[in-house]
Amino acid sequence: MSFIPPPPPHPPAFVQPDPCLFQITYVRLTTGDSFWYYPTSVERFLVSGYRWFGAFWRYFQFNPIYVSSMNCPPIPTLF
Question: Which of 12, 23, 38, 72 could tie 50 with a disulfide, CB 3.0–4.6 Å?
Answer without folding.
Answer: 38
